[in-house]
Each structure stands twice: as C-alpha cells, then as structure tokens.
Amino acid sequence: MAAAASSTDRPGALDITRRLTEICGPPFARLAGPADEVAGRPARWVAVPGGPHAAAEVLRLAARHDLTVVPRGAGTKIDWGAAPDRVDIMLDTGRLAGIGHQPTGAPTAEVGAGTPLRAVQAALERTGQRLAVDAPSPGATLGGVLAAGEAGPLRHRHGSPCDQLLGVRYLDADGELVDAGGGVDGLELARLLCGSQGALGVLVSATLRVQAVPAGRIWVTRPVWTPLEVHDLVRRVLAARLDPAAVELDLPAGAGPRPRQDGRAESMARHPSMAGRAALGPAGAGRLAVLLEGGPADVAERADRLVTLLGGRSGVSHSAPEWWRRYPFGPGDTALRIEVPIADLHAAVYALRDAAGAPVPVRGSAGLGVVHAALPGAMAPDRVASILAAVRGVLLARQGRCVVLSAPPAVRRAVDLWGELAGLPRLRAAKEHLDPHHRLAPGRLPGGL
Predict the structure, then answer these.
(1) Which parts of the chain sit beneath pLDDT 70?
(2) What is the pLDDT of residue 358?
(3) Which of 25, 36, 83, 378 has CB 3.0 to 4.6 Å from 32, enough for a Cys bridge?
(4) What is the per-residue pLDDT across 223-281, written as a single tens digit (0 to 9) for each?
C-alpha cells in the first residue's frame, strides 16, 4: 500500500479536510487533537458522520486517497490491542446511534453501533426488557463492546454479546453497506467482526436478542483465600445445578492463606441467623460471588441452598459487590486476559503468582475460566515478558491462552501481545478478503494484520 502523506500540511490535506467537512457537516469534521490517538498512535483527522451513508462516503474518500480509517466509539477501550500502523482518519461512531423501532415486547432489538450501552438498557427497561449484556467499561457503546469482544458476568448464562448477535450491518473497506445475518454464513461473518477492533469492517448497527428483566436477583458471596479453594467451590456450585446467571471471582493482590479461626467463630459464621447478611471476612480475603436470577420465591429458595452449600461466611445481598463488573487493572497497568478450562483456572493463577513472585490481582468469570489480571505499569518490560512466557508455558499444556489487552508503550513494544493463536490463518484470510488493501485499522489484529 503506498504511503499516505504523514502530515496534514502536505498538499491535498486541505482538500481532504474540506471534503470531510462537506460529508459530515462543519461541527463534525476536524483536524485531530492530542487526545485523538489509538494505543498511542495519533490520528490526522476526526470525522463524525451523521449516518451510514455519510460514513460510507468517508470510507470512499479514504479509499481514493489511500488513507487508513480506524473506528472509535466512546473510546473506553481505544488502547486495547496492538497500535495500528497508521491512523489517518478516526471515524467516530457517536452519531450512528439509536434503537430501531420494534413492537413492545419484541424479542429482538436493532441498535446503532454508537449507542451507549447504558442508554440501550435504560430505553429497554421502560418496557420491562433488557439486553443480557453487562460489559464492564463505563460509557461503552454497543459497537465498541462488539468490536473489542468484551463481555461481563452475564456471559456465564447468556453467552457473550457476540453469541447473542442475530445480525449486523457494517461498512466494508470500500464503503459498501453490508447486511450480515439471517443464515449460518451471514451469522458467521457477523461474529467474525466481533473482537476485530474495526480492522475487518465498520459496524453500523447490530441486532440482538432481548429478554424480560428478571423479577428477582440475589448475589451470594463467600470469602476465599486461595485459587485451589476457589476451584473446589466453583465445582461445587456448578454441580449443584442452581442455574447461576454468573459466577465471579475477585482475588486481590493482598489475598493470602486463610487466617486461623477458632471453632466458636466458625460456628457463629455458619449459624442460620447469618444467612441474610452480607459476607464478611478479613481484609485481604478474596470473594466468590454467584448471581441468581428468576422469580423472587425461586431465587430466594436457590439462594438458601447455595448459602448452605458454600458454608463459611457466605451471605446474601440484593445488590452487587462493589467490585462486580469492574476490571482489576487501571490506566497505565499491564492488563491481561486469561482463558483456560475451568478445571485448570487455579493452575493458571498459581503460575501467574509464581512467575510474578507475589499475588497478582485477578478478577472475572471463574465459572467459565475467563479472568483478568493486572501487572504494575512500572514493571520493567523484560520482567513482564518473562512472566508472560512462564504463564503461557503452563497454559499451553492446558489449552489456555493469555492475551495482553493493554500496556504501557515500552511494554507493548517489548512483548508479544497475543501469544500462540490457532486461528491466525483464518483471520489472515478474512483480512485479505474483506480488506485486501489494509485500509481498516492496519496492524490492530494479531500477526500485524
């Protein structure tokens, strides 16, 4: 692909600025500013098209001038993944928003890619419905959640947002509007766009299943101290057939061996009078939390059974724990995602602890073997690389993987973000088919695609 001009001062840049302004309107096209970057790579222009046809015109303009395009939603995960090779036009999807008109109680909803997820839920809630989508990123758009392959606790029962897709409308690299869905092949294409970070197509809207808001919700929580204890408890919960909506784990860096407890204290913790109280435990203990949803009487009965099953200092609450649906990492940290069969989750966490030389914050869906972890942003890149190598070595034998979601620039340059990826040939073929000139977020996908 011929190199485009690297500066907006080069000949033709003013013409591109003028054309973007004509397409999007004067307030919605501009030269990029310091905050307009993707994983540290600065953009040249920002365009906020007012609808699918305007977005298509932006892509056609980019094709004529051999410019790259990177979509952006709310920007909550703009630093996830690899930095693109170039960001000529940042296509902001904020005006590709709204919920398609559906009859009240309809089982599906078509949602614009730029619609904030919380706005979708608020609109559906007025009719007693919801999306079973609870991505942890505050303010995230639906398109951003899908493009990043993000999922929250409810994935345990309902699958990821990608699993709930019935179809998508997207723009290809040439600006053609494509409907994907309505059949096996179409649905496969729609789901291929999930997690693609905008490198295979620009999402315009998505159609997903909706469901009635559960009448009853109860969280049962229990303090935990070790990954092996978590392993045993999760096995117990899943074997009990209590139909949990989510099984989540929070293991802070300070979690250590279980403190000694005398028999009287243990007996008091198990007393039936404690069953209605929130779980308590020593500072530094982790938490296992199970969400039960359904009819109020049924949920209450299952919660009682679960409290008895978990024992210890387990208790119930009608509100989520403070850490629920939150990542364990913050800005500047090296953020990891670990995926491993449930039976081997404890081995992965122990491997991470051993490699790091100390407990590492871990949080996520213990009932599925998908968790996130955080390494300090100040950790030396070579140290991060050695930790990744050790953890991936353990996971390889267990059919698991560890991915770096985001990291400081020095770490990002020094480590392999993805590790081994069995689906790389299929991904490469998809990129060559859907974006042969590599104009959409080039370099964002594994293998530099």
Answers:
(1) 1-11, 254-284
(2) 92
(3) 36
(4) 999 999 999 999 999 999 999 999 999 999 866 555 444 443 344 344 333 333 333 34
Look-up of token digits 């905008």: 198
Rg of the chain taking only CA atoms, in angstroms: 23
- Report the SS3 class of residue 212: strand
Burial of 368 (0-12, 13-18, 19+ CB in 10 A): buried
**Cα distances (angstroms) measured from residue 214 to each of 117, 131, 245, 291, 292:** 18, 11, 11, 12, 10
Q: Pick the closest to residue 150 from 159, 141, 160, 158 (CA basis).
A: 160
Nearest to 38 by CA among 424, 335, 436, 412: 412
Find residue 219's DSSP bridge partners.
291, 317
Q: Is the CA virtual torsion 21, 23, 26, 30 positive or negative?
A: negative
pLDDT at 208: 94
* C-beta contacts of 110-113 below 8 A and 24+ residues apart: 110/205, 110/206, 110/207, 111/142, 111/205, 111/206, 111/207, 111/208, 112/142, 112/143, 112/204, 112/205, 113/73, 113/141, 113/142, 113/143, 113/144, 113/146, 113/202, 113/203, 113/204, 113/205, 113/206
